[in-house]
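Data deposition worksheet. Section B asks for the primary sequence of the deposited chain exactly as it was used as input, without tags or linkers unless they were present during the calculation. Section C holds the resulting structure in token form. Section D is free text for depositor observations; keep each observation to a single sentence. Incomplete worksheets are returned to the depositor.
Section A, Depositor: J.P.
Section B:
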Amino acid sequence: MKAVPKVNTNGLYLEDELVDDAFSGVVPFYTPSSPTLSDTNQQLDTHRLADSSSSTIDVTNSKSTPAGYTVGIPVPSGLYHPRFDIQGWLAYEAEYAENLLEAQKAFDQLNNESQALFQKQHDEWRNKPENERGDEPIYPAPTFKIPERRNPTTFWSEGLSEEEIKELTQKAEQQPSETDQLKQRIADLEVTLTQLMLGGTGK
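Section C:
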């Protein structure tokens, strides 16, 4: 199992989710939409005509809408509120699939041409007298080259504006660090201990 980020429909980070180690890509998750008043009335009328209970809900007619996406791409460090470019990713995936298909077609054509050329050379070699043949032709199998993929982490970006980041960092700077808080607690304890000791000696 591994933790992957979940984002809303705008691509803004929501939370992490545990998924199988083999999970990859970007997958939408759904939430059932609430039925409208007209849909509910229509369902009730239908159920009355069918002599069914008016409280029955027709689950098969309920539609689902995307609530966000589970992203199997790690978030790069240094982002305050990560945002994933959903539309950019979908467009890139469609373009890559098209490039992959074109590469496959080009490979198939090259493979067919290579086989035809090899068959011609082999036939010519076989038709020669044995003492004139020489080495038997070897089929040069072509190699399929997969199109290079863009680094998927580049689809992550900062979801906060510069002003929001500035405000966030200023608040963080104004708050004392853990070390300062510990020092202050130690100082307070020393004062309390001193007061207790002085109070004890006064009695």
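Section D:
Strands lie at 2-8, 13-19, 26-32, 64-71, 82-84, 156-158.
The first strand starts at residue 2 and ends at 8.
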